[in-house]
Specification:
By secondary structure, the protein is of the alpha/beta class. The chain has a single domain, classed as Class I glutamine amidotransferase (GATase) domain (Rossmann fold, 3-Layer(aba) Sandwich). The chain is 22% helix and 21% strand. It is built from five helices and eleven strands. A nine-stranded mixed β-sheet has the order 2-1-3-4-11-10-9-6-7, sandwiched between helices. A two-stranded antiparallel sheet has the order 5-8. Strand 10 and strand 11 form a beta hairpin. Helix 2 crosses helix 3. 49% of the residues are buried. Its EC number is 6.3.5.3, 3.5.1.2. It catalyses: N(2)-formyl-N(1)-(5-phospho-beta-D-ribosyl)glycinamide + L-glutamine + ATP + H2O = 2-formamido-N(1)-(5-O-phospho-beta-D-ribosyl)acetamidine + L-glutamate + ADP + phosphate + H(+); L-glutamine + H2O = L-glutamate + NH4(+). Keywords: ATP-binding, Cytoplasm, Glutamine amidotransferase, Hydrolase, Ligase, Nucleotide-binding, Purine biosynthesis.
Length: 277
């Protein structure tokens, strides 16, 4: 499709944030993007001019924040509302190859929804969560720039413009970002992710080495910071690419020369994918 035909929905409910930054990241690349409240997809109290369906869009994004106050578990209420109202359409959307992105709280939503790790291509949304994003090992909110190594070999449609093993810097801001797999099956899950080329980013130190705290800000298993589903069109990550689309958004911008922020290519990658869709 042509770039002027691409439409992106950044879903919001009470407590989400960064939807405006995410919308602006897409708009600066010349596409139609808007923040859409979940109620616009189903409520009979919404005016016809403001009503939406998933099929109005080429890409769906779940942004960061603290949706519904992160009560019960981070992302649990947002995902439950999506699953009860939009599951059929969202499953078909994913199955047909349309891209879905979850950033920070959005990653938590996709995990609670069962869309990640997404091992089954025929059933893109599992009946129940298959992993969890747990409370940080530090037991506190972690907010800092993090070094990430891109480890995907091309499956993830959101990161194809990054080089294999390229080191980038995205900020993190979360209290529940630790990737945890079922007890006793951690290596099984890890091996499956690696074999399927589903690991996208891992936390590293400035030299690109896998390291513990503070470089791994949450204690995530195997330093995992972001994964995609087996098809490559659903991507979740805890760090925030939308917060570093400009060079001056990096903490070291006065010392390191960049033509663009490290996060911009996430949005460029998916748009190039959609242009070939």
């Amino acid at each position: 499709m042509d770039r002027d035909e691409i439409r992106v929905a950044v879903l919001r409910i009470e407590g989400t944030n960064c939807e405006d930054e995410t919308v602006k990241a897409f708009r600066m690349l010349g596409v139609d993007a808007e923040a859409v409240h979940l109620k616009q997809f189903y409520s009979d109290m919404i005016k016809d001019s403001e009503a939406r369906t998933i099929w109005d869009y080429s890409c769906i994004v779940f942004p960061g924040g603290f949706s519904a106050g992160d009560y019960v578990r981070a992302g649990a209420i947002f995902s439950a509302r999506v699953k009860s109202l939009l599951r059929h359409d969202l499953e078909m959307f994913i199955r047909e190859g349309y891209p879905v992105l979850g950033i920070c709280n959005g990653f938590q939503v996709l995990v609670e929804l069962g869309a990640l790790p997404g091992f089954d291509e025929d059933r893109p949304i599992a009946e129940k969560p298959e992993m969890v994003l747990a409370i940080n090992n530090s037991n506190r909110f972690e907010c800092r720039h993090s070094y990430l190594k891109h480890e995907n070999s091309g499956k993830c449609v959101f990161t194809r413009k990054y080089g294999r093993e390229e080191i980038v810097v995205f900020p993190v801001a979360h209290a529940e970002g630790k990737v945890v797999f079922p007890i006793g099956r951690e290596e099984e899950y890890l091996n499956t992710l690696e074999e399927n080329d589903q690991i996208v980013f891992r936390y590293v130190d400035p030299d690109g080495n896998y390291s513990g705290y503070p470089w791994n800000p949450n204690g995530s298993y195997s330093n995992i910071a972001g994964i995609c589903n087996v098809k490559g069109n659903v991507f979740g990550l805890m760090p925030h690419p939308e917060r570093v689309v400009h060079p001056w958004q990096h903490a070291d911008w006065t010392r390191v020369e960049r033509k663009e922020g490290d996060g911009l290519r996430v949005f460029e990658s998916v748009l190039e994918y959609l242009e070939r869709f």
